[in-house]
Amino acid sequence: MSFSVTILGSASAKPTAGRHPSAQVVDVHEQYYLVDAGEGVQQQMFRYGINPLKLRAVFISHLHGDHVFGLFPLLSTLGLYGRRTPLRIFAPAPFGEILDCHLRYFDSELPYSVEWTPVDTTAHALLFENRTLEVWSIPLRHRVPTAGYLFREKEPPLNVDKFKIARYALSIAQITAAKRGEDITLDTGEVLPNGELTYTPYRARSYAYLSDTNFSAKAAGLCRGVDLMYHEATYAAAEQRSARERGHSTTRDAAKAARQAEAGRLIIGHYSSRYKDEQVLVAEARELFPDTCAAEEGKTFTIEKRR
Amino acid sequence: MSFSVTILGSASAKPTAGRHPSAQVVDVHEQYYLVDAGEGVQQQMFRYGINPLKLRAVFISHLHGDHVFGLFPLLSTLGLYGRRTPLRIFAPAPFGEILDCHLRYFDSELPYSVEWTPVDTTAHALLFENRTLEVWSIPLRHRVPTAGYLFREKEPPLNVDKFKIARYALSIAQITAAKRGEDITLDTGEVLPNGELTYTPYRARSYAYLSDTNFSAKAAGLCRGVDLMYHEATYAAAEQRSARERGHSTTRDAAKAARQAEAGRLIIGHYSSRYKDEQVLVAEARELFPDTCAAEEGKTFTIEKRR
Prior knowledge:
The structure is a homodimer. By secondary structure, chain A is an alpha/beta fold.
């Protein structure tokens, strides 16, 4: 029942010897989702022990090269490894055309299918859903159409209090009904409201990925109560003008978004290559939002279960 | 007057945590040429202190992703760094179509021009020439059209023996004429053959890049006398059948090519991911060609000047 985020890249568009461009893997109940795919992402996955064959889906925020150039080599490698499972890719248009070019020239005979779903970057919409997870788009404010992604764990199934099971001598059928959220009528005719029998084992967890973007109160609002937020902080607070002009955020913008969303924790990343030491940026963000961490490559941020 | 090769990638198509796909930089007289451009090549250049803005031209052997996926992020980064100098790219068709796709979707406003020259992979032809260097194509035998590249330093200008200058009291005009290779007529009417006055300061140097390919006696013959040869050795000698079928070489194929070419030294690389320790492969090649080295990433092989 894991829920974690592993950072694979922390650089902005100009990579450095030590930092890779944007990429992360979100692990929800041992199912893996790639969020952005900067150059070198497959090698970063190998380096940090994440099997790329286990990827269920890929979410691309926007079509700038530093968020997508690593995807094509990854698609090829998955083919070399004989993947059969279709791979879903969520990305803004015209990703389909770019994918067609790639497949035509480099991967015309992949052993698996790549299924692209266009993302409307102006809408907050449910894009992906399975038994345990929903992924929603978050409109962002960048120079090109860009979406953030909100990963929401579904409410876990209700647990039935074992003391109540014993006390009322509940049958299997009654326990199953209680797990479904139903009230239970005892043989005596007494009705036990579901709330007296069951409890939520842990609160559903959530993660928001917001990159690249100017500060957006709307985006922050859509992430209200999120446990963990990644927000780009390309620039230090003093570079607010550059940030505005380039469709990026400062450390203070990131902290403001986390505070406004009442996030549990904040990760900042997508650092401009001018900042050799990201701790300077973290210190700035912490002035406004104390629970801020650096997007350190290889680091896994786990969201623990809470009642 | 440098002449060296720096290895940036040593892996074959499946990259590993420790090895990058094919890429090298050839430095001829402080001018830099990129040979193949596997994923991560720009970061490898940063890592090993090679300024990508100094690249004069790129030579792509063939259009398999592990030899070309790093080129597109590099093109973008050169744009971000404000390159103005045109960049020449030599690659087999249909590279131009692939380049068009890249430029259309990712780099429609590069500040420099990218000039593609198609390489006829069936011909041994002069592709590139400047004051100090010629680059020739070498037809190879792979699953898709593939060319190797032969870097030939031009003969350095003649030096005039300073003892002869003093002995015959040669004038500036006579020295200049001697440097051009002319015979010199003294005031006495005596004619000094050019060979008595001048000497070649060092022998022109050469480097051959042969990847990916089956063993080719013809390719080896075209590299006769080469100072340094890179030859792929994807497989150990025992895997000769896999090598043949996949259009690749074994360690023995590489050594045979070097021996047949009477090469000075051999570098082997493009190792299959199954070989964790490349020294096993090097040892095999050395049985046939003792002066064999591993393509170790970050290592620079310098061809020293010799008389």
